[in-house]
Specification:
The structure is a single chain. By secondary structure, the chain is mainly α. The chain is built from 11 helices and 3 strands, in the order H-E-H-H-E-E-H-H-H-H-H-H-H-H. Strand 2 (58-61) and strand 3 form a beta hairpin. The mean pLDDT is 90.
């Protein structure tokens, strides 16, 4: 019986090939070709193609079989699609669009959390921000990332808006991707630590305008840093 790890490996390989553009939209894909290329059974190839179809990367067409779809059809908010795109040549564009999504959503989510978070959630946000300060000063990026993901997830889920809450996995993938791609400083900059603390304190005190402003400043700094990194990369 095929192992989940085997399914995952083939899914990642084909998913990256499609999202990177190595396999162009309109290209037909057959179970035989997938099986031969990756050394897997027809059963595994069929399951992989079923999962890709669920992600909007391929579609079954009469008399043609499965064909690759353009990006306009992809489930671009699925964490797997985000991960594949971050690993490909379109990384900068993916980071830009994800950061713009954060800029549009997270300030409003922080304001919502200031209005709707429970006492336990407010206390946890303060604790997370305080621990992030300690880890940031120490330069412990691995554990800092875990806490950062939790803080942003908590804000989204405590916002009172289920649509924002559904984006928690997307934001986690962005934060993880920036770290793993080496796009984070060796130690969090003091301004970022202060902004995380400002967001947590504003939410804890129920100050929605302050929470929104602090999160806008935080995500705005991320956007500026990304723009600077992209500009530097394009400089001869």
């Amino acid at each position: 019986m095929p192992t989940p790890a085997l399914h995952s490996a083939v899914l990642d390989a084909v998913g990256r090939a499609v999202t990177s553009g190595d396999v162009a939209p309109g290209t037909p894909l057959t179970l035989e070709a997938i099986g031969t290329q990756h050394g897997v059974s027809r059963t595994v190839a069929r399951e992989v193609m079923r999962m890709l179809e669920g992600l909007g990367l391929v579609r079954s067409r009469r008399r043609v079989g499965l064909v690759v779809l353009p990006m306009t059809e992809w489930n671009v908010l699925d964490p797997r699609v985000i991960r594949w795109r971050l690993a490909g040549p379109g990384r900068d564009d993916q980071l830009r669009t994800l950061t713009e999504l954060r800029h549009a959503v997270e300030p409003l989510a922080a304001a919502g959390a200031a209005r709707h978070a429970s006492d336990d959630e407010r206390a946890e946000l303060l604790d997370l921000a305080a621990r992030m300060r300690v880890l940031g000063d120490r330069g412990d990026l691995a554990e800092f990332l875990d806490l950062d993901i939790r803080l942003h997830e908590l804000l989204l889920r405590a916002s009172g808006n289920e649509m924002f809450g559904a984006l928690a996995a997307v934001i986690a993938e962005v934060l993880t991707g920036r770290t793993h791609l080496g796009l984070m400083p060796a130690s969090p900059v003091p301004e970022a630590l202060e902004q995380h603390e400002a967001v947590a304190h504003a939410v804890a005190h129920g100050d929605a305008p302050a929470a929104e402003a602090a999160m806008a400043a935080l995500v705005g700094e991320v956007r500026r840093a990304l723009d600077a990194t992209t500009a530097d990369a394009g400089t001869p």
